[in-house]
What we know:
- By secondary structure, the chain is of the alpha+beta class.
- Helix content is 26%, strand content 30%.
- It has helices at 56-64, 106-116, 121-134, 150-162, 180-197, 208-214, 232-237, 242-248, 323-328, 354-357; strands at 15-24, 33-41, 45-49, 71-76, 79-80, 91-94, 168-172, 200-205, 217-222, 225-230, 251-256, 259-264, 269-272, 283-293, 297-304, 317-322, 336-340, 347-348.
- The strands form 4 sheets. A 6-stranded mixed beta sheet has the order 6-7-8-3-9-10, with helices on both faces. A 5-stranded antiparallel beta sheet has the order 13-17-14-15-16.
- The termini are far apart.
- It binds adenosine-5'-triphosphate.
Amino acid sequence: xxxxxxxxxxxxxxxxxxxxxxxxxxxxxxxxxxxxxxxxxxxxxxxxxxxxxxxxxxxxxxxxxxxxxxxxxxxxxxxxxxxxxxxxxxxxxxxxxxxxxxxxxxxxxxxxxxxxxxxxxxxxxxxxxxxxxxxxxxxxxxxxxxxxxxxxxxxxxxxxxxxxxxxxxxxxxxxxxxxxxxxxxxxxxxxxxxxxxxxxxxxxxxxxxxxxxxxxxxxxxxxxxxxxxxxxxxxxxxxxxxxxxxxxxxxxxxxxxxxxxxxxxxxxxxxxxxxxxxxxxxxxxxxxxxxxxxxxxxxxxxxxxxxxxxxxxxxxxxxxxxxxxxxxxxxxxxxxxxxxxxxxxxxxxxxxxxxxxxxxx
Length: 361
Ligand SMILES: Nc1ncnc2c1ncn2[C@@H]1O[C@H](COP(=O)(O)OP(=O)(O)OP(=O)(O)O)[C@@H](O)[C@H]1O
């Protein structure tokens, strides 16, 4: 009988950027970026995510060549670029405030770096115009930045970053200067551009929602180390540590005899205190502390029964109920309830990354 032919396992996508034990130390003591290893697949959208001060901008600036590396290496498409000047790396950076020259037209802003490279006026203007057309800004090429909206300025900034033909585009909080409505619109544009251009994007953000909406790969950082790398779905559904579960939000961290578990707020079930639940279901007794109407959902805040509660303490647990379920069985503040979940809904949490576990407050 012929042996079954095994399908070859797909080759891993080539890495656009590889960080090897990359470290940044500004001063004595703990490094701002502490020997991180990361592989970013070519043509992917990668978001570096974490709270303020976790080292995400330092990491991006080291990749860009705007910050010297203390130790470790940066490899771009199999070429070590650790010591190269920014302009020789094959990366380009787009900044939070777009950093456009206010006295130059959109066209001259985009053409600027070609002027620095010594290209003739006709050629650099033709190339800049071509890129402005690509980001649907050709008709506003003669305007100065102050005569453009935030979204239009962002498109000019993108065209300016792309004119040098980078392999990797680095974006430092590119949406944070925009108002909330425009932020959503430009977020969708960023994603579309990345797919259309087929480039690798590395985008720094402190917004979980932004990273989830954009990323193929999320890198969650804390205190200079990487806590978790994965797709938004994997990180949200299988947070590696208590830090990731709490930082991503939408999870309850529950202490059980077997260790800490994360249960999503929309998976944790609530029942009246007197309800007769199956004996083998894990549960805890709690008191409703807040009822927040959110439209399609109602968010219940709860405290463990018997826990002292100060006036401004955050709720220990949260349950997100569809509006219809809440209306069918309403709960009110002060009511004693049982919280329960199935083993399949509980995700065991590992320890935080070692450096974080030792983190000074
Ligand atoms: N030029 C610098 N000199 C000294 N310390 C710095 C410098 N830049 C950053 N740091 C420190 O390094 C740590 C990491 O900073 P970094 O800006 O990389 O974090 P971040 O996660 O991007 O924060 P944020 O979201 O607030 O920009 C912080 O403790 C910060 O104070």
